[in-house]
Amino acid sequence: MKTVTACTLDCPDSCSLVVETSPNGKTTLRGNPDHPVTAGFVCRKARNFVKRLRSPYRITSPLLRRGGEWLRLGWDEALDLCARKIGEYRREPQSILHVHGEGAKGVLKQASKLFFALLGSSRVKGSLCDSAGYVAYVADFGSRDNNSVTDLLNARAIVNWGRDLSRSSVHTAAVVERARRGGTRVLTVSPGGMSNASASDITVRIRPGTDRFLAAAVIRRLIERERIGEELLTHTKGWEDFRELVLARDPAGLAAACEVNDEDIERIYSFYADGGPVATIVGTGLQRYLHGGENVRFINALAVLSGNMGRSGGGSHYHLHSLHSVDFGWAKGPAESSRRTLVYPTIGRNILEASAPPVRMLWVNGSNFVNQAPDSLQTVRALEKIKFKVVVDAFMTDTARHADLVLPCALILEQEDIVASYLHDFVHHVKKVFDPPGEARTDYEILSELGRRLDPPILLPDPQTCFRAALDRPNIEGTLEELRAKCFIEAKRPAVAYPGMVFAHSDGKCRFPPELHPEPPPPEGYPLRLLTLIRGDSIHSQIPQEDQAARPTVWIAPENPFAESGERLENAWVVSPLGRLRVEVRLMAGLHPAVVLYRRGDWMSAGGGANRLIAAGLTDMGSGAPFYEQYVRLETE
């Protein structure tokens, strides 16, 4: 049997999938060849996820903690217990905290937000992903928008600031490779650890977290060589102050700050100054620093001042807002502004500090934040203070292990939904392929049934109503029935963002960053920067338990003094002020000498979990998590 559906993993590509099941039960998943972006192929992450559907470790019935054991419950008993606890705490609804994550995308996944908004619970804001960059784009351009991904084919040159294309977006990688075969030159700026070298004409190694200084150094050359036209500047606001800010910095000082030599700065300048069009790709990693938003803003300023915004083949490419093609307004409650808000990147600290009322009940869906948020051990201590904790998940994750009640949920391919993309403009119908195993239910079904048991009840709109509301946008031409029949439809959006350099601010002009902050030095005793970079085989912590390594591996540069121990060191420790983690050390050519590279997502319960070493904090904008601000050292036994 062959079914066309779509991927709902937290990935920009949002692939259209063809799932085939043979009579003997074997499942094959491949990309839809008829989809303009998916183009017949998918990444390892999607293919590997099929293993999780039938994993022997999957939770298939509600589990209640009783002492040190987990007891199976029926759904009636489990939901009655939840209803009693909500009834107990409902008089102070903000004592209930709802944590919604992006473990899976989709319209119906938003129902939990509506449920707890109607309840009046506390909620979380901020992001563990890309919010500093999002807010930077809004500050610069007035909105989050960029040229179509296929417009990269019109670029004369592409400058990739730190995006690991093959691990983060295989379809962006395919477009860049196709452009390169057609003559487009590609330059990559990176501290190393990416797989872009073979797809780049030039690779420039940079000191981690200092992209703003490199962009400023290139902008300074544009100013000094009078390559910025007067007409272009009429589309900007604050130019004189920004010009003064850049010229006040010594060129040698800018180069030293980012540890990029004059020759490489000149190469980047030549890319941007040759008349273009030059497309700029901005990775999410460079905004995971204390000054992450500022890094993005200086790169955007370079794209503007080189004359590459508002034109085909140019633009600054980040992540689109997925709401550009679906409407989630139906999932908002009537009094959102009055709800107490905790901050995702500092959630452990926030729970411990919460008072009047304290957090007494926790509901988690789509999130493994004990593993994924900084300072994991503080987060564990915070959860111990909460009287009743419910985690909706399919596996006994690092977060589920600290729950009082675990409710088994349906996964990708096991429920109908609608999903949009933050890479392209297609909206997909997610057709159900399999029934969930055992007693597992969808997130929507769980909350819909729970809501009916409350007094007074909380009644969610039925799924069809949610679907139709999500598609009720002026740039969507098609009904729910048409979407189901066609499997995907394209939302209308200009292929070029900000045409004519008319931006989304009320005056139509772009803005510049007001400051250029110095990079803080490493703390004494911790000279190396811990970069917990993206994996190629799994989304974040959604790693099959059978694939968890017995010991994490980290990589360092051959120039790192610790590399004198040899090509491979099986017993070492990564040490931060928060703790230590036993690792195996290997060498990787091309890494910056000050980097310790760790592929994030492995579980604490399996001996991993790098976030136990990373201090909680906030980026300069967007309430993001500055994961890469953490300094460490390596030790042997």
From TrEMBL:
A Pfam family matched in the record: Molybdopterin
Keywords of this entry: Iron, Iron-sulfur, Metal-binding
InterPro entries (alphabetical): Asp_de-COase-like_dom_sf, Mopterin_OxRdtase, Mopterin_OxRdtase_4Fe-4S_dom, Prok_Mopterin_Oxidored
Origin species: Syntrophobacter fumaroxidans (strain DSM 10017 / MPOB)
Keyword field contains Metal-binding: yes
4Fe-4S Mo/W bis-MGD-type domain ranges (all copies): 1-57
Protein name: Molybdopterin oxidoreductase
PANTHER family, alphabetized: OXIDOREDUCTASE YYAE-RELATED, TRIMETHYLAMINE-N-OXIDE REDUCTASE
Keyword ATP-binding: no
GO molecular function: iron-sulfur cluster binding; metal ion binding; oxidoreductase activity
